[in-house]
Amino acid sequence: MLSKITGKQILFLWVICIVGLGNSALAVNEPAGLSDSLDLNNEQTDVGYAYIMDDRSDPFVPFISKAVVPRRNEKDEIIKEDKVLTGMQLFEPGQLQVVAIMSTDGIFQAMVQDVTGRGYILEEGMLIGRNGLITSILDDEVVVIDMAHTRAGRTIETKISMRMDKEGE
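The structure assignment produced for this chain is given below.
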């Protein structure tokens, strides 16, 4: 006769089977000579689990490692000055488009517009962008010198040319 088996009894039998298989698997994979060094009759021996690295990877090392990016020389790093930007310093030269250049009594002025279409007038000697200075306004371009300072005390000068688009371009 079969008696009714409860869920707890099935779980208990399942655990016993897994533990039995686990112990037999450990016995099969046991390295040679390990059982000889253990004294199974002495209860004070606590060996624990020994991970044998024979041609195996370290389980605590991640499979994917980040690429190491070499750091730039800190002396060549550009210093960003904390200063309040006003007027045309709020715009970098690349954000503006030269619309027109005019001359009055030999003084050149350039009309530029931002991406929203708002217009501004530039003159020589004005500050533009974080580190820029308008050095000259020619017939078809505005020349800006961008001066950045590094931690090493060097000054890096970059010439930026803002050209006026001709009709049809």
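Interim note for the steering committee: The two ends are 97 Å apart (CA to CA). Residues 14 and 20 are 10 Å apart (CA to CA).
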